[in-house]
Amino acid sequence: MGKQATERRLADNEARAVTKMIRTSPQKLNLVAASIRGKSAEKALAELTFSKRRTAVTVKKTLESAIANAENNHQLDVDQLVVCEAYVGKAMVMKRWRARARGRVGKILKPFSNLTIVVREIEETA
């Protein structure tokens, strides 16, 4: 008795990692995610290591987690991994305010984002 196991949504040669509630706007995070899409995992890590953007650190941690998942959970070859998907979604928005002139208020929005990275093992072409 018990719950039936759900089928795996990814292919057998894929692994993913998700990071939720990243304290940056989805637009800024997507710029970094777009820079690694389609690249090999090794090149993507190198690019994130030397990127000047603050969110590159978080994206790098997520990519390292996806690579570790591929190696340890799905027995994929690390040298043949490619970042096939890297997408960003909106999470919550903290709403704050600042007092302005004449009793009015200035709205401050502090957005959060979710990041998903999917790596895929590709066959090496000789």
Compact summary:
The chain has 3 helices and 3 strands; from the N terminus they run βαααββ. With 126 residues, it is of the alpha+beta class. The termini are far apart.
Could you name the key traits of this structure?
single chain; 126 residues; alpha+beta; Ribosomal Protein L22, Chain A; three-stranded antiparallel sheet; 3 helices; 36% strand; flat
Class by alpha and beta content: alpha+beta
* String of helices and strands: EHHHEE
Averaging pLDDT over every residue, what do you get?
Answer: 95
Global geometry: flat
Task: Provide a descriptive summary of the structure in words.
By secondary structure, the chain is an alpha+beta fold. It has one domain: Ribosomal protein L22/L17 (Ribosomal Protein L22, Chain A), CATH 3.90.470.10. The protein is 29% helix and 36% strand. The chain is built from 3 helices and 3 strands, in the order βαααββ. It has helices at 26-36, 41-49, 56-72, and strands at 14-22, 81-99, 105-121. The chain has a 3-stranded antiparallel sheet. Helix 2 (41-49) runs antiparallel to helix 3 (56-72). The radius of gyration is 19 Å and the shape is flat. The N and C termini lie far apart (49 Å). The model has no long low-confidence stretch (mean pLDDT 95).
